[in-house]
């Protein structure tokens, strides 16, 4: 696993001049930072800030990357993530008692990773299983902007 992490980290471009005298691999630094991050979340030392960073930074990176690709499947994935993330953010702000639960931010962090990481596609699962059935009655195929524009132009021509 350490070899795989080292291989992946070597693919990340380093904009500084590499130093040959540096003896510890990048993998150790990544593992150390990851462990520190988890330690801070588990003991709720800035848990809200750290989970919000996890909820914005990873998906933000992938969303920006998706905007620069021609593939629309990743656009759909990240649009779905942001809809689900916004829904849970509103619910979380309305139900302020959630902050009283022990290890709330630890569970929120794990949940956000499950929602956002492309390997799991948790946001798509939540959207298709729960949100789409509830919201589909409010959004029909003919309610998109292009269809509304076509209807308006058709109505204007009949006048």
Automatic annotation (TrEMBL):
GO terms for cellular component: membrane. It is found in: Membrane. It comes from the Eukaryota. Signal peptide: none annotated. The chain crosses the membrane at residues 80-101, 107-127. InterPro entries: TB2_DP1_HVA22. It is a multi-pass membrane protein. Keywords: Membrane, Transmembrane, Transmembrane helix. Belongs to the DP1 family. This is Protein YOP1. The lineage of its organism: Eukaryota, Fungi, Dikarya, Ascomycota, Pezizomycotina.
């Amino acid at each position: 696993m350490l070899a795989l992490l080292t291989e992946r980290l070597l693919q990340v471009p380093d904009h500084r001049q590499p130093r040959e005298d540096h003896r510890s691999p990048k993998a150790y630094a990544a593992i150390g930072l990851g462990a520190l991050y988890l330690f801070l979340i588990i003991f709720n030392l800035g848990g809200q800030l750290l989970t919000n960073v996890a909820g914005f930074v990873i998906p933000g990176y992938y969303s920006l990357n998706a905007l620069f690709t021609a593939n629309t499947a990743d656009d759909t994935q990240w649009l779905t993530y942001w809809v689900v993330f916004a829904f849970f953010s509103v619910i979380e702000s309305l139900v302020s008692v959630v902050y009283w639960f022990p290890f709330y931010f630890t569970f929120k962090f794990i949940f956000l990773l499950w929602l956002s990481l492309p390997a799991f596609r948790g946001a798509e699962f939540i959207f298709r299983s729960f949100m789409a059935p509830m919201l589909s009655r409010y959004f029909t195929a003919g309610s998109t902007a292009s269809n509304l524009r076509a209807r308006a132009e058709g109505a204007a021509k009949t006048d």
